[in-house]
Amino acid sequence: MDAQKKAQLTEELRSMLDAETRGQTRKERWVWLLDHVDEYLDRWKAFCNLDSVSMSSHIQGDLHAVLLAGVNVFEEELRCLASSHPLKKTWQSFSELVRGIQSETSKDITKELDTQLAIVRKELLDFSSE
Length: 130
Known about the structure:
Blueprint: H1 3-20, H2 26-48, H3 55-60, H4 62-77, H5 86-99, H6 109-126
Helix pairs in contact: 1-4, 2-4, 2-6, 4-5, 5-6
């Protein structure tokens, strides 16, 4: 997928986030976004489970691009947190894992992605605006 299409997906997600969470707290906004990242990940994982499709095909497809758009937008949202904040640190671990997926990456990465995203969700649910 070309850079222009990826930028468009990211912008569309930002617009959806703004429209759907208008008037909500920062935490509610982040929960909405994390729910969408989780949904994108679930869809991507479902295709990863197809033995007939290579990882190379998976990372070149639209689902992976949408997942990356979600990762990028969530990361933008967390810019206001200190780099040492537990939520930001756990998110960085997850996002690095997603961004590190290459054509030679084992499909077993889906288990690690699930684990990391569950840790992020716990940190987010424990988050309180300071």
